[in-house]
Amino acid sequence: MYLGVSRAETYAMPLFPAGTGLGNRLFHWCDAKVYSYKFGCKFISPRWCRLSVGKHLRQWRKARFSVEPIFEYAQSFRRLPGDYSYYRSISQCLFLPKIRLSQCSEISNLPKAPNALVYFDKSYYEFKDYEPFRRNLTKDLLASIQPQLFKKVLSIKRPYIGIHVRIGDGFKPPEPGSDGFIRTGWLQQTPIQWFKEALRLTREATGENFPAYIFSDGSASQLESLLGEENTFLYKSKNPVVDLLALSRSWLILGSGSSSFSAFAAYLGSSHAITAPGHPFSNRGLMTSKCQVIESLNPREPGATSWIRSLPCPALPLKV
């Protein structure tokens, strides 16, 4: 018997559909983790690394630049002591029934599958059922990241504002006239003007010229008008995991509403997060709590300044 365990076990493993980015992969990872917490199942560490040649070609064709390595997530994650490695566990589970779960809206209502390998390859992409396990999920995810990746993240002096500008790969350009910030649609780019006005409003309302770091799949030329704002910098680590950690340590995140990357950064760091009207993180079950404010904001509306002033003090440093 392999690994000293009986074959009469239930195993949970996330599977990442082709082309999924880090944010969506984390939903699959959390689904499998929550299932393992709930039923005491054996968790199998996934294969994170992916080849992203197509993404590079699309970026190069559009903007003549590329921001990420061809092999994404390589050497970014490690297996936790209590988890099973992918290759050894596949041998262990070779003769077990295989069950693929198309995730329902409430993972807590899923029954335990007896003596099977349960794949989580589809997700509801919502945080609601993660909340009871938030501390364990955050702790396990941070422990799964290679320690050397934290060095660059922790070098940024806090507090700062994190700006996540999602531009490419499936996100449509803003609709004409969307600078009025009435609504930003699903999988639609947030207008650069919204980020500029939200940043200015935050600094004016707080009386603090917080440094702002931009995290984006866009080029410096595409972000030129936003980079023209005072004390604003483009953060380029060339590693999505490092970017996620750095964004999560922001006091306030100005996020792209349809982006699971923005939402997961707010979830992991308990950072305040605002988005343009139309697709708030509350649609993903990420809600305002005692220590964290999650909201959509039109910086031109009356009361926006007083709302910013009401934000709690900068969050405590993310422990690693």
Task: Please explain how this structure is put together.
With 320 residues, this protein is an alpha/beta fold. Helix content is 30%, strand content 14%. The relative contact order is 0.14. The protein has helices at 22-39, 53-63, 86-92, 134-144, 150-153, 192-206, 224-227, 240-248, 260-269, 304-309; strands at residues 11-14, 42-43, 50-51, 71-72, 98-102, 117-122, 161-165, 212-216, 232-234, 252-254, 272-275, 294-296. It is elongated and about 60 Å long.
Defining key terms:
320 residues, alpha/beta, four-stranded parallel β-sheet
Number-wise, the strands total 12
Note the main sheet.
Answer: 6 strands, parallel
> What oligomeric state do these chains adopt?
single chain
**Helicity range:** 25-40%
Question: Residue ranges: pLDDT <50 for 5 or more in a row?
Answer: 1-7, 315-320
Strand content: 5-15%
Q: Shape from CA axes?
A: elongated
Major sheet: arrangement of strands? 9-8-7-10-11-12
The total count of helices amounts to: 10
> Radius of gyration from the CA trace?
20 Å
